[in-house]
Amino acid sequence: MPQAHKRIVVVGPTGFTGSHAISELLSRKHTITGISRNPAALGEHPLYTGIAVDLSRVSVPELAKLFEGHDILLNCYGPHSTNALAYSPYVEVCRKVVLAAIESKIPYVYQVGGTGSLSFKVEAGAGIPDDGNEFLAGFDGDTVDSNTWWRLYHETIAQSLAHCKYLDVILPPVGTMIRDYGEAGKVRERGEELTTEQKVLLSKFEHYADENSGLPVVEFVKSCRLILMFYEGRQDFRWVRDFAPP
């Protein structure tokens, strides 16, 4: 039986997540409305319509009006790139999105993002063998508080050419540092001798939660963790969220 085509409104259509999601949705012939500061940056497509909105200033009733008439809301919002790791703008806009979704009575809400929201348990002895570092063995709590999770997160994005290129755009020094970290990890895996700089870099990333608790990137992941609480236990609207770590 052929899949029914849906009318989908996407908040944050031009970002890293939103643009990839829309590309997939358009390939499946869904009709898309993109809402952001500059939705036209995504380009033109007969099934895509962009509505320029300053999400930091729009009211909940105004946003609800834009959601009306759609089958699904996909929230891929991330703060504007000039303030890409901001805690309060992310929380505030996502709060308005949830309230507007309820007011508009849109049938289904899909929230994407929130890498710091899940809880997990690290098995005793977890870590990289023979490197002299101890991770939080037996840790039982939120991912954002764990050195182990941050190590695995940075290892993953260091292997992603797309993510490194994205960092080059919004945070160029971080993109370079992540690449260097990935190369240092490869040197260690091959059993080759590390330079002093590589040892320092590996140690920095492998104790990230302890040493960088006040950095914007950590605070932003904490804001992602908070967004989960906008949804958990809610039965007044239909929702699903993709908060899984990479």
What is the averaged pLDDT score? Answer: 80
Q: Per the principal axes of the C-alpha atoms, what is the gross shape?
A: elongated
Q: How far do the termini sit from each other? A: 33 Å
**Main sheet overview:** 6 strands, parallel
DSSP, total strands = 8
Q: Beta-strand percentage?
A: 5-15%
Q: Number of DSSP helices? A: 9
Report the C-alpha radius of gyration, rounded.
20 Å
State the strand order across the main sheet.
3-2-1-4-5-8
Helix content: 40-55%
The oligomeric state is single chain
Structural class: alpha/beta
- H and E order: EHEEHEHEEEHHHHHHE
Would you kindly provide a written description of the structure presented here, covering whatever features stand out?
The structure is a single chain. The protein has about 250 residues and is α/β, with parallel strands linked by helices. Helix content is about 45%, strand content about 15%. The protein has helices spanning about 15-25, 60-65, 85-105, 145-160, 160-170, 170-190, 195-205, 210, 215-230, and strands at about 5-10, 30-35, 50, 70-75, 110, 120, 140, 240. The strands form two sheets. It has a six-stranded parallel β-sheet, with helices on both faces. Strands 6-7 form a two-stranded antiparallel sheet. Helix 3 packs parallel to helix 9. The chain starts with 6 loop residues before the first strand and ends with a strand. Mean pLDDT is about 80; it is low at about 120-140.
